[in-house]
């Protein structure tokens, strides 16, 4: 379309010798060229803004999904019921979750980076929504960290209880064996005394 208008302007300029018409056509062509350049720049800027919003939307979705999966994993891992082996498995699973937090941190950082970049080109109403989404992600991240710490403390406490119980059970077993030996020795002594 731009080339068509420019070509028609050139044809009109060649077909007239009137200087006022030539001047007006030159001004019109110049304004049209400026408008065309401005429009191309505006379209590029808008396309970049759309791309930034898409990047934010994808980063937010990935971070939300990771957080949801991590919260589900934590829910399964934080259960303190079960025997010593179950508690040890839960502690191992919790350790895996802690290691995976680096991945989650990267996803949160990406969502925040794209969110901040997108905020500049977002309407005030949309900016409020975007800030709310970022705030929710940050709050979920913080809550996951606190819940992970709480679960670690609870599981380690439960494991300590199991260790104490094992120690107490071992002490009782030793006492029973010692008592049984003493009773056997006493019974053997009584039998010898009866034989005499």
Radius of gyration: 39 Å
Structural class: mainly alpha
Secondary structure: helix percent: over 70%
Q: Which percent range describes the beta-strand content?
A: under 5%
Distance between the termini: 129 Å
Note the total helix count: 4
Q: Describe the main β-sheet briefly.
A: none
Written as H for each helix and E for each strand, in order along the chain, the element string is HHHH
Tell me what the structure shows.
This protein has 196 residues and is an all-alpha fold. It is built from four helices and no strands. Helix 1 packs antiparallel against helix 2 (19-77), helix 2 (19-77) packs antiparallel against helix 3 (84-119) and helix 3 runs antiparallel to helix 4 (124-195). The chain is rod-shaped, with a radius of gyration of 39 Å.
What labels would you give this structure?
196 residues; mainly alpha; 4 helices; rod-shaped
Short description:
The protein is mainly α and 196 residues long.
Tell me the layout of helices and strands.
Layout: H1 2-15, H2 19-77, H3 84-119, H4 124-195
Helix pairs in contact: 1-2, 2-3, 2-4, 3-4
